[in-house]
Amino acid sequence: MAGSRTGVVLPACCATGYARRLFMLQRHSSIDPIAQPDDERLPTEWTSRAPQATERAPKSAADWAAWLVALAVLVFMAVFGFQAMTWALAGGWQWLWLAVGLPFFGVFSVSAVLLVVTRLRERRRVRVALEGMSLERGEGFRVGEPFELRLRATVPIAREGERTVAPERIVIRLMRRSLVDAPDGTGSLVDECCDEAIASREDARAGRLLYACELSAGSGYGDAAQWFVELHDPTDDDNAPFLIAALRPLPAR
After folding, report:
1. Which SS3 state, helix, strand or coil, does residue 124 take?
2. Would you say the pTM of this structure is higher than 0.70?
3. What one-character DSSP code corresponds to residue 90?
């Protein structure tokens, strides 16, 4: 098992209470325990919505050599233009050198400065993303017993001007959706966080990554509920899940 368990967490385990009213419905006695959440999402690709970091892009020896040659040419032409302007100071027909020296010095000196500034400020984005995601939920979930969850994925190929990396950690929450009765005779479905764990990144075979953790709802929960898991990006301030998967409850032993 990878990642660290936080243990059994009370319904207030999430900072916001993590209870939200989804919709109102007429009173009924139970909820189908095998029904999938209405908002189940199982994407195969994901990109973090957190602000992307930037870094200085490494350059090869050939890139540096080409850049130095280009800078040397620009500097040489700028120096030639400056020298031509000094020749024009002799007067007479030497003033003709001013028509050559002034544009040469102005254009190539500015180009050399821009070339240096561009290289110093050149950076690339670091995109946190996964693709080919596959969630392993096992044969089923049994209340009161440990439940192991695995997410397998790969890192997508980087586009030009960026570098792609996998997240170091993923927050996984075990959720329970149950019916709460209201005094007016109606009820609402409420989501409750029953356990939370942090799954750390591990390298698997064939370039794939593995995120694994163990969850447990503890005892004392009834059967009239829907169980599912949510995967969150810990760096995303919105705290919205990027993957929601239903669980198949098993009867108690």
Report:
1. strand
2. no
3. T
